[in-house]
From TrEMBL:
Gly residues bias (residue ranges): 239-254
GO terms assigned for molecular function: DNA binding; DNA-binding transcription factor activity
A GO cellular component entry from the record: protein-DNA complex
Family statement: Belongs to the LysR transcriptional regulatory family.
InterPro entries noted in UniProt: LysR_subst-bd (IPR005119)
Occurrences of domain LysR substrate-binding (ranges): 10-194
Positions with biased composition (Basic residues): 255-265
Protein name: LysR family substrate-binding domain-containing protein
Pfam families: LysR_substrate
Taxonomy, superkingdom: Bacteria
Keyword line: DNA-binding, Transcription, Transcription regulation
Annotated spans, Disordered: 197-265
Length: 265
């Protein structure tokens, strides 16, 4: 368990390219009394960070060792090739590995695609990081193949990217140590899977969060029921009592209105 019963907290690791904003926002709405701390980690170190206890759960890139880590695959990223904006490939919608045969394809040491055979021509040296490789692409040294999220992360005005067909893909997953599946981890799993706050699945919320959730549900229910508290109901618009029947005493002043007598033929 992270923290203590009186002051729990939750640490969430994430690798470059992953944007956890949506899930963090939902967490803060549901458990505002449990601080969530984001921990940025390199993709190659994410699993070890979870094993060391540096974070309670994390968004990682598959594969992970399932002997001691649990993982829920979330999505698969499109693989793209990053090129200068004036590159000939910028004129097409998709690039194939054959199109890169004469290109120097940079292969950074933090590559997450796990190529068996990299397309194109190898560079003399491997850049240390993806960020370094991006700088080399901008300098006209070569091109770079990465998941789309990393191309967006390292966006530059002088560069663009195109989808690359028949290439390895990177899958992102939520992972955590199997022996540390705490209540808070269960709740974050529920958020990622789209469960509502009132879902019966998972473990109970911490006491303070339970109380807040009940109060919120009660307030929403009260707003939906008309006439419960607040101002009284407004009367329906229109004339009171509706239209009086023809010839009735309630129709006009002084009784029923007489019609004109018929002429004799």
């Amino acid at each position: 368990m992270t923290g203590s019963e009186d002051s729990p907290s939750f640490r969430l690791a994430y690798v470059p390219g992953v944007t956890p904003t949506k899930w963090v926002r939902i967490w803060n709405e549901r458990l505002p009394e449990v601080p969530l701390t984001l921990v940025a980690v390199p993709a190659a170190e994410a699993c070890e960070a979870l094993r060391r206890g540096d974070a309670d759960a994390g968004f990682v890139r598959l594969p992970v060792d399932r002997q001691d880590l649990s993982a829920i695959p979330l999505y698969t990223e499109t693989t793209v090739v990053v090129i200068p904006k004036d590159h000939v490939a910028a004129a097409v919608d998709e690039v194939s590995p054959a199109d890169l045969a004469d290109e120097i394809v940079l292969h950074p040491l933090d590559d997450v695609l796990g190529w068996e055979t990299l397309p194109g021509q190898p560079a003399i040296e491997r850049p240390a990081t993806t960020a370094d490789a991006i700088e080399l692409v901008a300098a006209g040294v070569g091109v770079l193949v990465v998941p789309q999220s990393l191309a967006r992360l390292h966006h530059r005005k002088d560069l663009t990217y195109r989808p690359l067909s028949d290439a390895p893909e990177s899958r992102v997953a939520l992972s955590w140590p199997q022996e540390a599946t705490t209540d808070l981890v269960e709740h974050f799993i529920g958020i990622v899977r789209g469960r509502t706050v009132n879902s019966s699945r998972g473990r109970p919320l911490p006491q303070a969060a339970q109380s807040q959730a009940k109060d919120k549900a009660k307030a929403q229910s009260k707003q939906k029921r008309p006439g419960t508290g607040g101002a009284p109901r407004k009367p329906a618009t229109g004339k009171s009592g509706g239209k009086a029947p023809r010839g009735g005493a309630a129709g006009a002043k002084g009784g029923a209105k007489r019609g004109k007598p018929r002429r004799k033929s």
